[in-house]
Amino acid sequence: MDKIDDLTEKAAGALMAGQGLSGELLPPDAGGHLDDATVDVVNRLFASLCAIKPAYRQAWPDNKALGRAKKEWARAFMAAGIDTLEHLRFGLEACRLDGSDFVPSAGRFIELCTPEPERMGLPSMDAAYQQALRNSHPASIGSERWDHPAVYHATLACTRTALLSLPTDRSRSKFERAYRDIQNRLLRGEVLAPTPPNEQKAIPRIADPAVGRAALAGLRAAMGGANA
Hints:
With about 230 residues, the protein is mostly helical.
């Protein structure tokens, strides 16, 4: 499990040791059947958020409110498939950069945990969607070009037929959900299967008319000689 930056890690360590927020740690199995890893992640996250957002008491005025919030956030993280500090790193970075002293809601923080594709080395959403459309066209079958396996797997999840047949807004929305899901899978450490090998066949080229006429003239000459 990757650590967050040293400054926040030190602040988190102090808070989790009880300096300033006594009794706020989420106990094991809090909120109903939470595994130890999830409990640990939530405790570390809240310690970091309290260090990053000085107005956290506006959302959590006392330790009792803080404990309730941890349980709700833990359930939200489990539902969203978020369970590691590595996955949360992007959300914490966004919170440090947004300029606000106030903590976001659980739902907003989960959104922040899925960064723009480019920050993960993936094609942008626009580029990925356009590539999915091009490669879904029947004329492209067998000659597709994929910039990243994430685009390929998101396209398969949507189905090529749906991408081409749905209205543009629904097609785009469907692809965005699939692409975000692939991003989350990558953040959880999943390794995507590679794209299939390209099976492009050589496309017959139309011959140069001059070459064709010369060949025909040669054939006629040969036939004329044979008839002589």
